[in-house]
């Protein structure tokens, strides 16, 4: 399977995008996207996976285990931080609404209750500095929201900036000789570019780099547009590049075999020094691009 999936290349009814662990060639992380018309409705079973319903553009009502969860959503990923719903494994779910909705997922062993996540409770972090400044919406990070294995965050990169930088990897469960902790995680990047629409192959682009080591080679430099996905089974990933004129959004979905949810990673040792340079630089004044109440 290609590691760069343009919008439409991984569609299967009722999903506009479907990446299961089997289709990705790994064991845990998955992502689906629903594109619902006015009055749209889809019913599905979660099976062995815990999932989220995350509005990308639009609003929906989620029915699960006798609960009705109203998602106010947002006009676009560049307009506001959104509320979301958590869906447990072994559940039947109905989503009714209009818009585009991401459903990050992970193979889960525990069955947790369905829950509503408010936009106001999403921790918004400004990370990096200078041209490496970005906004991270930690809506389903390990410290922000309880799941069995699933980890998911949103990143907004102002035009002209780099994020997912310095390049880092999480392909081994180990403590390095210098004390750095690395976790084994599968990762999915789902992209949107400001001004772009899914399937539109116009000028709104971003770029994603993935590369490996001598032990595990991998080589991806993808031109990404709204709705595209890049899979990261292993290797260093970054930078994610927002060209001048085009803000870049991506949804990161991570899951792995470890008993503790984590985002532990290690930098490419050739570029890790970049973090130390941020102390003397201001954060890009355009950030944050969004908040719970909108721009």
TrEMBL record:
One annotated GO biological process: inositol catabolic process
Signal peptide: none
Organism: Micromonospora viridifaciens
Annotated GO MF terms: glucuronate isomerase activity
Record protein name field: 5-deoxy-glucuronate isomerase
Pfam families registered for this protein in UniProt: KduI (PF04962)
Record keywords: Isomerase
Domain of life of the source: Bacteria
Annotated InterPro entries: Deoxy-glucuronate_isom_IolB, KduI/IolB_isomerase, RmlC-like_jellyroll, RmlC_Cupin_sf
NCBIfam families: myo_inos_iolB (TIGR04378)
